[in-house]
Amino acid sequence: MTGNAGSSTQENHFRQRLRVMAEKIVIFCRYYVPLIVLLPYRTLQFFYQIKTQVPIEPKHSSSFITDSEIQSEFAHHAPGVAMMNNGSFGCCPASVISALHQWQLKMFRQPSHFLLNELKNRILESRTIIKDHINAEDVDEVSIVDNISTAAAIVLQQTAWAFAEGKFNKGDAVIMFSCTYGAVKNSIEAYFSRAGGSVIEVPFNFPLNSNEEIISEFRKALEREKGNGRRVRLAVIDHVTCVPTVVMPVKQLVKICRDEGVEQVFIDAAHAVGSVDVDMQEIGADFYASTLYKWFFCPPVVSFLYCRKSATHSDLELHHPIVSHRYGKGLAEESFWVGTRDYSPYLVLPSVMEFVNRFEGGLKGIIKRNHDAVVEMGKMLAEAWGTNLGCPPDMCASMIMVGLPACLGISSDDDATKLRPHLCDKFGVEVRIHYQAPKDGEVGSTTGYVRICHQIYNKVDDYYKLRDAVNQLVRDGFTCALEVCICSAFIQFIGL
Fold first, then answer.
1. CATH topology of domain 98-355
2. Distance between terminal CA atoms of the chain?
3. Distance between CA atoms of residues 139 and 126, nearest Å
4. H or E stretch including 480?
5. What is the DSSP letter of 230?
6. Distance CA 1, CA 359 (A)
7. A Gene Ontology MF term for this entry (predicted)?
8. 362-494: CATH topology
C-alpha cells in the first residue's frame, strides 16, 4: 500500500508539472510567437519607411485647436480689455508659460548642474529650430539674444571699432529710412555717428500706394550719395515697420544695396517672424534680427540675430556687448552665456512649435489667418469712420493702419501719445495711435491713424469695441485740443 501511494503521489506531481508547462507553452504561443513571426516584416517596413520618407499623416480637422481652446490658452489676459496692440509686446499662451515655469524649476532644483552641463545643449536645440525656420545655412549663423536693441548693438559696435581702427573713414555713411525704429536710431547715433560716420535718412512718404514708392526713394538716395563720392558702409532696413506699419520690399532693397556697392545690410525684423514668411537665402541680408515674443508666442525676452557666414568671416569682428567668460569664442557662444541669469525664455522653442502645430497649416496658417482678419477689420473700421487704410492690404502683415476721423484733432505726436491711454482707461481698448504730419501743401489730409493688430486670441467684438469707442468720442465732440485744455484747467484747479 505504501508503495502504491508513493507512486500515485509522484504521478500527480508529474501531471501538475506537465499542466504548468502546457500553460506556459500556450501563453508563449499566444503572445510571443506572433511577435517573432512579424518582427522581420515590421523591421523591413520600418526601414522602408525611412528609405522612402513616407510622410506623417496630416492631422484630421477634428484634431486642430478649437476656438474655445485658444481662448483658454489666453485666459490670463485681462478681462474686459480689447487687446489689439500685440505688435508692441506680444503674447504667450498658457501651455508655453507652463513650459517656462518648468524650465525655471529645473534650474532652481540644481543650478550648477543645469547651468554648467545642460544649458548649452538646450539652447543649441532652440537655435536649430530657428535655423530651420528661417532657412539659414548653418546653425552657427544663429545667435539667441534678448531683443532687437541687443542685436543692433552687436552689429553697430563693430562699425565703431572699424572707425577707431582706421578700416572706415570719417564721413562714411549708414543709410536708413526715416521710419526706422527709435531705439535702433539711437544705436546708430551711439555707435556709428559718434565714431565719425554720417547718416543718410531716406524719406518714408506714408500713406503709401505701392512698394515702388519705397524702392524709388531708396534707389534715388543711394545713387545721389554714390554720385557725391560717399561710401555707404551699412544699410539698416526694416522688414515690417513699427508705426506706421508696412511690410517693406526687403528682397528688392537688398538687391539695390548690392548693385550700388553697400557693404553690409542689417534687417530689423522685430515684427517679422510669425507674421510674414522669412527665408534667409531669398532675402540675402548680412544681418537679420527678429523678436520671438511679438508674433511667435515666446515669453519676453527672446530674439535672435542671424549673421551670414560671409559677414562673420570678414575682418569686422562681432561680439556681444556684454563681455563674459566666453568672449572670443564666436558670437553664438558669447550670446548663450552672458553671466548668471534666467535663460528659461530661450528654452521654450520646442513647446512653442508644439503650440503652433496645433493650428491648421501650422505657422503659415496662423500668418494667413491673422493677415486676412486684420485686413477685414481694417476695412470695416475705415468704412465706419469714413476714412482710409494707410496702405494696400498686400503691404501689411498682421497689423494695419486705419485713418481716424479728422474731427478728433490729432495734430502732434503728443496728441497721439495722450489719446492712447484715454481709449484704454475710458473704453478698455488697447491700440497704438500714430500722428502723420501732412505732406507739403496738403490740406485736410488724415493726420491721425490707429494701428490695429490681429493675433489668434482676438475676436470681432474687439474691433467693434474700438469702432464704437471712436464713434462715441466723435458724438461727444471730443478733440485732443479740448482734452489738453481740460487737463490744464484741472492742474491749475488742484494747484500743481
1. Aspartate Aminotransferase; domain 2 (3.40.640)
2. 122
3. 10
4. helix 480-494
5. -
6. 83
7. carbon-sulfur lyase activity
8. Aspartate Aminotransferase, domain 1 (3.90.1150)
DSSP string, 152-196: HHHHHHHHHHHHHTTSS-TT-EEEEETTS-HHHHHHIIIIIITTT
Per-residue pLDDT in tens (0 to 9) along the chain, 496 residues: 445 555 566 666 666 666 656 555 644 454 344 434 433 433 333 333 333 333 333 344 558 999 999 999 999 999 999 999 999 999 999 999 999 999 999 999 999 999 999 999 999 999 999 999 999 999 999 999 999 999 999 999 999 999 999 999 999 999 999 999 999 999 999 999 999 999 999 999 999 999 999 999 999 999 999 889 999 999 999 999 999 999 999 999 999 999 999 999 999 999 999 999 999 999 999 999 999 999 999 999 999 999 998 775 566 789 999 999 999 999 999 999 999 999 999 999 999 999 999 999 999 999 999 999 999 999 999 999 999 999 999 999 999 999 999 999 999 999 999 999 999 999 999 999 999 999 877 777 899 999 999 999 999 999 999 999 999 999 999 999 866 444 444 444 445 5
Report in angstroms the alpha-carbon separations of 185 from 174, 199, 206, 224, 244: 11, 10, 19, 22, 16
The CA distance from 491 to 86, in Å, is 33
Q: Bridge-partner residues for 453, per DSSP?
A: 399
- Assigned C-alpha cell, 128: 536649430
Spatial distance between the Cα atoms of 363 and 28, rounded to a whole number of angstroms: 49
pTM over the 0.70 mark: yes
**In the chain, domain spans:** 98-355, 362-494
Report the C-alpha gap between 372 and 394 in whole angstroms: 10
| Same-fold call for 98-355 versus 362-494 | no
> How is the beta sheet containing 448-453 ordered, strand by strand?
399-403, 448-453, 432-435
Residue type at 467 in one-letter notation: R
Contact 227, 192 (CB under 8 A): no
Rounded (10°) angle between helices 480-494 and 413-427 = 80
Strand partners, 449: 403, 434
